[in-house]
Amino acid sequence: MTTPLVVGVSFKMYFSHARARQWFAEVASSLGGHPALATGRVELFVLPTYLQIADAVEALSNTPIRVGAQDVAATDEGSFTGEVSAAELAEIGATIAEVGHLERRALYGETDDIVAAKTAAALRAGLTPLICVGGSERDDDDAGRAAVEQLERALAAAPTGRVLVAYEPGWAIGAAQPAPASHIAAVSGALRASLSESERAGSAVLYGGSAGPGLLTELNGAVDGLFLGRFAHDPAQLARVVDDADALTRQP
């Protein structure tokens, strides 16, 4: 396998500061020296809240685990009360910025234009954008079309650079089970084809939406990794997913 499998974790707003610091310490101890991470076969990142990023960077500094933010400003600087720029995130050690999550679109009215601006801002500052795509309605007849269109709009005016894409269908977020493997494979294939045409080397397509241990094995190469939520809030469950990824990278 020429590129790493990618595993990401979002805290959303579930963790207190104290709980986040405990999670960082446990994961640094249990996974910081994992051979798959050390050799680059598996890439692991965590997206805590803004206030937890500095603690994460410090706690994980001696590990290969990357730290990012769950959002980023669409502009580089200026009179934007409450916003955090990509440049400042990079300055304190973040390397990833999530953009376009379905909750940001639904709760805060983020449009495709805003997502595109945030994607461009992240790339200008040297951050890897994690571009979330996927609508709230299931469409198996034309699987992938809406997600690909979202991705293409996000990248239309973006600088060159690697991106991560998280396919997160709204109907699977928080559900008892992830989306069917056949559906995930179809959408991931369409997104991979779009990325290939954009010539963004090293980019990857992840699946999120009730993802957990065992799903990478079931998908068997149909995706480039997983974007995890509540399952990975337990470090032991996260370790199981990293082990799944490790096993897949060892396959001939």
Structure characteristics:
alpha/beta; eight-stranded parallel β-sheet; about 250 residues; about 40% helix; 10 helices
What this model shows, in words?
40% of the residues lie in helices and 15% in strands. The protein is an alpha/beta fold and 252 residues long. Helix 7 links the parallel strand 5 and strand 6. The protein is globular, with a radius of gyration of 17 Å.
What does this entry show, briefly?
With 252 residues, the protein is α/β, with parallel strands linked by helices. Helix content is 40%, strand content 15%. The protein has an 8-stranded parallel β-sheet with strand order 7-6-5-4-3-2-1-8.
* Count of distinct strands: 8
Look at the helices and sheets and give the structural class. alpha/beta
Low-confidence stretches: none
Major β-sheet profile: 8 strands, parallel
Q: Secondary-structure map with pairings?
A:
Elements lengths: L4 E6 L6 H15 L3 H4 L3 E6 L5 H7 L6 E4 L16 H6 L4 E4 L2 H7 L3 H13 L3 E6 L11 H11 L8 E4 L13 H18 L5 E4 L7 H5 L5 E4 L6 H15 L3
Parallel strand pairs: 1-2, 1-8, 2-3, 3-4, 4-5, 5-6, 6-7
Helix pairs in contact: 6-7, 7-8
